[in-house]
Amino acid sequence: MDQNPNDSEARAAALEAGRLLFARPWEFVTSVARYDQLVPPAGVEVAFAGRSNVGKSSLINAVTGRNGLARTSNTPGRTQLLNFFSTADFGGAEPITIVDMPGYGYAEAPKKTVDAWTNLIFDYLRGRPNLRRVFVLVDARHGLKGNDLAALKALDTAAVTYQIVLTKADKVKPPALEKLVSQTIEAIGRRPAAFPQIIATSSEKGTGLDEVRATIAEIGGFRLPSIA
């Protein structure tokens, strides 16, 4: 079947909008350890969630083109706060903020600390009115695990739209990756808050980064400048 030229043009425009958005300088804004430390909602926020050590910080660094923007570590559970990143250069548009969330699941930290992170995450998800989407990162080598499904259930309950982003896709052979994408689509098919499109990424190889950028630009209402 021939591709609709209008679809091709819309896709090209979305990818270019994403490129332009993330060609701007992105900076660290703040970190918070408690819900009452959050700054007042402004503009649009998207959050990155996932199991500990799934590659959230690495993906944020790759998408923004800033290697040291989000702290990365080989130690699971290193991200212990809600970390906010944004760009001040919006040309009059509303700001778009990326939130790096503490990893769920295994973490090298006391249970009391992990419980505090968990409470912070759920308070943020339930109470942030400008949170438009949560990107739930899933390691492509392992697929959805029990704690991922628990997180999806919590997002469904909170009525927060979420989208699955597969990380480390370069570590999986193409046939296995295609099968995993199909299995994941089937697994989220009846979940009320799930966005149906899956994005496969590799922070190391650059795979899928343009799709993530375009998606964030679309969520934030960032458009190409009009030509007079």
UniProtKB/TrEMBL annotation:
Cofactors demanded by this protein: Mg(2+)
Which InterPro entries does its entry note?
G_ENGB_dom (IPR030393), GTP-bd (IPR006073), GTP-bd_ribosome_bio_YsxC (IPR019987), P-loop_NTPase (IPR027417)
One Gene Ontology term from the biological process aspect of the record: division septum assembly
Q: Which GO terms describe its molecular function?
A: GTP binding; metal ion binding
What Gene3D superfamilies is this protein classified in? P-loop containing nucleotide triphosphate hydrolases
One Pfam family, please name it. MMR_HSR1
Function per UniProt: Necessary for normal cell division and for the maintenance of normal septation.
Note the HAMAP family from the entry: GTPase_EngB
Query: Which PANTHER family does its entry note?
Result: ENGB-TYPE G DOMAIN-CONTAINING PROTEIN, MSS1/TRME-RELATED GTP-BINDING PROTEIN
**Name by which UniProt lists this protein:** Probable GTP-binding protein EngB
Species per Swiss-Prot/TrEMBL record: Breoghania corrubedonensis
